[in-house]
């Protein structure tokens, strides 16, 4: 293990202890200064390239088979089922070697193949109801169980995407694809789902110190999914307000409604940012700062840009963003230099 990898593991452990309340902020800072992180984590970038490369390879293989082999739907279902089984078995085999990264990626591809299998089966046994979200629910439950059975955070990430698509599709199907479902339009219903996801993530995080110790890191996926869905919902509400039926007249939100939702969005983003700084939780800091900056730029382009003209507005937006990046980089370098001197 290289010194940089060791320091990264130490910082991850310190962050977890801080969130669990086992150490204070002062102890976290004092110990963290002894283990300086000075290099870019190329392995993190490599994991993403490997994942996307494997997905691209699988997509290319499927296109090749489609062009050169003629499948009936039953044959395609059997073929996809065998591919799904092979990917999961191969993934387990590689993890045992150990090639955990490659094995986990194969299991992720197995999850995609499982989704494809369910949709082909849905086409074969379709009753004409058009209830495709039901297929996603089956996939979601199976993959959620596999995520914990196989201890694969990549599969859990896929589950978060499936939940987003299934929940929107299911609530839309029940409401006849109208904008309202139980009195809530799409942003409001996803805002409610975000609160539930974040609450589940917080409970999961607390349990990772004991009962769910084996699944350390899974809570971040739950919390990340909830934060993303919630922030995106507030973004839409800040732009359009609580709009009416999707096929009805356009909802013209008044100034008071937009100010209320913009204020709520700002409070949520700044609250997430403050909590992330307090707990040294980098993911929260990233979400809070990113969406607060998005809100500022959204307000600029919706309220000010038309008055200034697009040329001046783009110059101001681009220049301010560049200045922000330079300032953040200089602050990072200062902190790194201070830690190295200590």
Automatic annotation (TrEMBL):
Q: What is the name of the protein in this document?
A: DUF2157 domain-containing protein
Q: Which residues cross the membrane?
A: 45-64, 76-95, 101-125, 137-166, 186-205, 217-238, 258-277, 284-302, 308-328
What keywords is this UniProt entry annotated with?
Membrane, Transmembrane, Transmembrane helix
Reply yes or no: does the keyword Transmembrane helix apply. Answer: yes
